[in-house]
């Protein structure tokens, strides 16, 4: 599989180790990974703020960078969903490329479970020497947009693709949260325009994890984790946040 690795701009700038962990994961399961050096922002912040008409340059650049690969994979549910739903070309040829990309872009955990169909990831990764208690944050875009996990309000069998992978790693004890799919309050530009509401939602989300005595909070979106990390640091809590790629590769 020739995979184009799409790393969101905030991961590139603030959490490059998440990109490295993602690369290690994909290579461990047999993918040939390419990282286009001229990739930039996918345009989601502008689109979510009501300026979708300004994202044309981002779209064209994305198409130039990723049209050639069998799959495009990203360690971000929200950016993946934006491309899947909103990527368009500015001419007929590029629109054809955009349509193809939209059908073959995947968030990391859905790629591993749905495309690669990993069932024994633990055998490919370094063994953990110390057990850890982990709380899984189900981000809204991943859950409700990409269907990475079942929504708790539905009368339907539960499932979670990220949890399915975490359960393959020895030494990770997943705790049960009181509200398993509550929003953390980040919401992209929402945390800027409605900072008080966003902060209170984040405190509530963090409190649920703390009640369960977690060592780490994990998830598929660094944006959500960044929001909760700021709250934890202001509380001077020893609990850490780690993207799921870091837990799956045991790079803590």
From TrEMBL:
One of its GO terms (molecular function) is oxidoreductase activity. Residues 3-84, 134-228 form the Cysteine-rich domain. GO terms for cellular component: cytosol. It comes from the Bacteria. Pfam families: CCG. This is (Fe-S)-binding protein. It comes from Fibrella rubiginis.
């Amino acid at each position: 599989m020739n995979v184009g690795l799409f790393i969101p701009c905030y991961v590139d700038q603030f959490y490059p180790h998440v990109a490295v962990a993602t690369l290690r994961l994909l290579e461990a399961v047999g993918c040939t990974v390419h990282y286009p050096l001229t990739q930039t922002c996918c345009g989601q912040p502008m689109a979510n703020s009501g300026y979708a008409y300004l994202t044309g340059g981002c779209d064209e650049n994305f198409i130039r960078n990723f049209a050639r690969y069998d799959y495009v994979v990203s360690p971000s549910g929200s950016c993946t969903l934006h491309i899947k739903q909103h990527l368009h070309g500015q001419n007929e040829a590029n629109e054809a490329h955009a349509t193809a990309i939209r059908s073959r872009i995947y968030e990391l955990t859905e790629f591993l479970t749905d495309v690669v169909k990993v069932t024994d990831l633990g055998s490919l990764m370094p063994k953990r020497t110390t057990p850890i208690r982990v709380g899984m944050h189900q981000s809204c875009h991943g859950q409700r947009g990409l269907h990475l996990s079942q929504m708790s309000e539905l009368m339907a069998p539960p499932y979670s693709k990220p949890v399915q992978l975490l359960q393959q790693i020895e030494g990770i004890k997943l705790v049960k949260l009181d509200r398993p799919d509550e929003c953390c309050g980040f919401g992209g530009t929402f945390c800027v325009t409605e900072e008080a509401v966003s902060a209170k939602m984040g405190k509530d989300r963090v409190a649920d994890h703390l009640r369960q005595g977690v060592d780490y909070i994990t998830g598929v979106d660094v944006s959500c984790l960044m929001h909760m990390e700021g709250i934890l640091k202001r509380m001077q809590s020893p609990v850490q946040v780690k993207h799921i790629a870091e837990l799956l590769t045991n790079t803590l």
